[in-house]
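Worked example 3 (structure in, sequence out).
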């Protein structure tokens, strides 16, 4: 447990940030999961699901929850999966 006032304040700030970051990270994970499920199930609104996932990843990266390269890598993998399944359908 912190004894110094600045350390106590830092702990309070870290807790607030952790909770805020958790929202962005969880939202991104949820949308990615939904997009992957839609891709695998050949859902008719798969593009909308992928767009939501990309938006959530961009939002998380802008807010510093995940690194921008991490977001780019995840978006790339998602688009690659989408393209692969579209090609198999054609």
């Amino acid at each position: 447990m912190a004894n110094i006032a600045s350390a106590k304040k830092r702990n309070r700030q870290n807790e607030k940030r952790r909770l805020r970051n958790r929202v962005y990270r969880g939202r991104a994970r949820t949308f990615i999961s939904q997009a992957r499920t839609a891709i695998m199930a050949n859902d008719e609104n798969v593009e909308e699901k992928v767009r939501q996932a990309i938006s959530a990843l961009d939002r998380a990266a802008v807010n510093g929850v995940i690194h921008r390269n991490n977001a780019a890598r995840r978006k790339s993998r998602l688009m690659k999966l989408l393209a692969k399944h579209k090609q198999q359908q054609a």
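Notes: Residues 67 and 73 are 10 Å apart (CA to CA). Helices lie at 5-40, 46-62, 68-89.
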